[in-house]
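To the wet lab folks,

You asked to see what we're planning to order before we commit. Fair enough. Below is the target structure as tokens, and below that is the sequence we designed to fit it. If anything looks off to you, flag it before the synthesis order goes out.
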């Protein structure tokens, strides 16, 4: 029996089999880890709901930045635009996540294949999945960082190709340039790895005096970057949105969003590493992987046989840390952009498995145990349908529906309802009620009122003039009645209140305008 399992059970001699296994593995991992999957009632993460609202609005004729304000980049919104063209739902986002995650794991598998056989390389992929979906960094699924995984890992993969095969095709350099541009126009703080990989390889070729190849690398990566950038710029230019794109994506992110600590450039770089290590300490698995794995990478010449590969890998890692945390902000999910690079630190740990009689049977048992570990350390599983009365649905445990669903049922009883998400980031009611925003600042982003007063000025005007039929607002559970803005209490009637948990206990309020309420 063991001989059959060793030689024939899952047919790993077939080159397509690892790909199929990676896709199936991604389906299972994200089914438990992503709140977009059918295992969950909804994804209550505010950022994800912003992306979906923008994508759905774009698919229905509203142009990002020109008609709706948001700070993330157009290629990220384009993913949600395509999702909305098919079906604007959390499950569709989950399926797209599976595709992106599968590509990410495939490139990690290709990196491992430089050192190990197929079975050990697949085991490496399983372990990487633990790192890539860890709580609290993964944070419910659908982040810009998660959707950048395949592009980030592809750049690291090309680094390994360059030093192992000594040849990277022109089309691969072109794809690197396209990947660079895609991430730049998604969330430009994630570009550190691309800058480092390109600069590192160019310097290496220059030291080799291989000037022709050096020029080709610069030419094709630049061509890829310029090609996608031109498409973005031309599209928004003809939509009359180029100035709005500049203000929302560049100016507000550079000048208005970061922490203004007044530090020097060197000080901000040092602070970026401080933030990074503080984030690492939040999870023992990541911390030990980084420390022990990095030590093994340096001391064990099995992986970094070439000093150029080692130097450029750590250059890429350091560059990503700097660009990610340079602004001084420190959200848990920011670390996601660095985790794919850190996965390389797991490679030395696979060496012993490659040397033993690691069979298909062992691989299947390892996959099962790894999946159980992923499920066991998942901090979100108690928010799933397996626990129908959990606090993310209702604090008192008496409701089986969250505020978003309860409120949407009330809203959709009206003809042509309109909605404003007042004073906070998108709570998911636009999606739940299937309503497109009707005003520019349809939510409040994480920029202070002092730096960007026009957001709340417009929202207050919308409420005062009763331009929308419904207003949704949330406040911390322990609050006073007076904390609800007087402008809302004067112009709108309370329709429904619901308490539920999101990071902390909240009270959600749905108000209906006086004009429509008394009809």
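Sequence we intend to order:
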């Amino acid at each position: 029996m063991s001989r059959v399992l060793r030689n024939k059970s899952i047919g790993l001699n077939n080159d397509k089999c690892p790909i199929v296994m990676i896709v199936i593995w991604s389906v299972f991992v994200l089914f438990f880890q992503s709140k977009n999957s059918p295992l969950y009632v909804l994804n209550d993460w505010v950022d994800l709901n912003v992306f979906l609202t923008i994508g759905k609005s774009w698919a229905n004729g509203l142009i990002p930045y020109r008609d709706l304000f948001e700070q993330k980049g157009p290629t990220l919104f384009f993913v949600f635009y395509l999702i909305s063209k098919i079906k604007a739902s959390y499950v569709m986002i989950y399926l797209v996540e599976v595709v992106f995650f599968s590509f990410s794991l495939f490139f990690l598998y290709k990196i491992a294949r430089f050192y190990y056989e197929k079975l050990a390389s697949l085991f490496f992929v399983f372990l990487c999945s633990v790192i890539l979906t860890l709580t609290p960094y993964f944070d419910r699924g659908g982040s810009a960082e998660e959707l950048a995984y395949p592009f980030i890992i592809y750049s690291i993969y090309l680094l390994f190709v360059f030093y192992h095969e000594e040849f990277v095709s022109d089309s691969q350099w072109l794809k690197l340039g396209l990947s660079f541009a895609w991430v730049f126009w998604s969330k430009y703080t994630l570009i550190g790895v691309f800058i480092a990989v390109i600069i590192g390889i160019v310097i290496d070729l220059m030291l080799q005096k291989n000037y022709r190849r050096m020029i080709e690398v610069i030419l094709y990566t630049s061509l890829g970057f310029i090609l996608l950038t031109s498409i973005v710029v031309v599209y928004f230019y003809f939509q009359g949105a180029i100035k709005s794109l500049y203000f929302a994506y560049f100016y507000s992110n550079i000048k208005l969003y970061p922490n203004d600590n007044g530090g020097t450039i060197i000080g901000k770089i040092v602070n970026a590493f401080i933030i990074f290590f503080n984030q690492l300490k939040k999870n023992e698995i990541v911390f030990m992987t980084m420390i022990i794995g990095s030590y093994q990478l340096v001391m064990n010449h099995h992986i970094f046989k070439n000093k150029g590969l080692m130097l450029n890998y750590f250059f890429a890692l350091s560059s990503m840390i700097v660009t990610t945390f340079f602004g001084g902000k420190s959200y848990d999910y920011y670390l996601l952009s660095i985790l794919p690079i850190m996965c390389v630190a797991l490679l030395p740990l696979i060496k012993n498995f490659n040397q033993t009689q690691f069979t298909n049977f062992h691989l299947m048992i390892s996959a099962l145990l790894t999946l159980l570990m992923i499920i066991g350390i998942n901090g979100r599983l108690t928010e799933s349908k397996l626990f129908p009365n959990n606090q993310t649905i209702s604090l008192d445990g008496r409701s089986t529906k969250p505020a978003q669903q309860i409120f949407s049922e009330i809203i959709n009883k009206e003809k042509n309802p309109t909605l404003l998400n007042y004073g906070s980031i998108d709570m998911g009611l636009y999606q739940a009620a299937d309503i497109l925003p009707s005003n520019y600042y349809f939510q409040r982003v994480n920029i202070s009122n002092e730096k960007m007063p026009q957001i709340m000025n417009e929202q207050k005007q919308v409420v005062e003039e009763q331009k929308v039929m419904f207003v949704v607002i949330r406040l911390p559970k322990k609050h006073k009645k007076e904390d609800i803005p007087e402008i809302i209490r004067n112009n709108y009637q309370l329709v429904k209140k619901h308490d539920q948990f999101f990071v902390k206990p909240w009270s959600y309020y749905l108000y209906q305008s006086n004009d429509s309420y008394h009809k």
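Structural context that might help your review: The first strand starts at residue 419 and ends at 421. The chain has 23 helices and four strands.

Thanks,
Computational group
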